Prior knowledge:
Elements: H1 20-49, H2 72-88, E1 98-102, E2 108-111, E3 115-119, H3 129-144, H4 147-166, H5 174-210, H6 218-226, H7 242-250, H8 266-269
Parallel strand pairs: 1-3
Antiparallel strand pairs: 2-3
Helix pairs in contact: 1-4, 1-5, 2-3, 3-5, 4-5, 6-7
Amino acid sequence: MLPEENPRPPEHINNPPGNPLLEFCQLLAGISVMLVAFVAVTALAASYLAPYIPYRWEPTAFHDLETPEEFQSAQTELQALVDELAVAMSVPAKMHVQVHLIDGEPNAFASLGGQILVTAAALQGLTSENGLAMVLAHEIAHLKRRHPIAGVGRGVVISVVLNAVFGASASGSAAALIGQTGGRLTEFSFSRSMERRADRDALAAVVARYGHSRGAYEFFQNMLGKRAEASWQLMFSTHPMTEQRIAAIRAQEELNRGRDLVPLSAAISALVNSDSGHGPVLE
């Protein structure tokens, strides 16, 4: 026998119990985690694949950079030291390393096409050629390992992925910001790895050239004295903590007692006697 009337459906059958806002947040969190992971993995893949790009394809944006007249003598001596270090570090012959001494805020960094830029202010505080060689060898190591092109490749891939997912007009949206965060965290971790590797290569080059590592930490000691660092900064820094870098270099100090330091040349010494009041940056 059929019921006289259809059964009454339970209340809220199309509105299950729960908090819609909480469910939305869970969904957004899940999408965000997947996006961050995707961008991170893609960026790392680009970093590893970019160095296989033929070196001759790298642009040399700073090749024709004009050196101030007062820096020309010092730059000539810097280039001579760079040439010697490049040979000692077995830099490929096709990779001609060229150093540019320029004016500006304290900085030293390696760029595409075998270019190294060093500001005169970055050299202030150095007292030996040993410390200078460590700075230059660090940048040469970046070039030899193709770190600049890896960094460019990572940035390009992250930009392409974000534009493909969100569109160029959405680059400032909250979702795009989440994706950019994933790429940025990858950049932090990988850049610290690059810096540590360049430090090790540079220290090995200094020891091979001078027979010891005394004075190699001079640049970092000067940087630490001008710019205090807190341990929490490591999470947001592309570089290892300066104290850690000094400790890694000074680990060999017990083997270097009584070793002499090589003085700076006259032309370079003229640039390092004054204090700019800024903390140098080594990239």
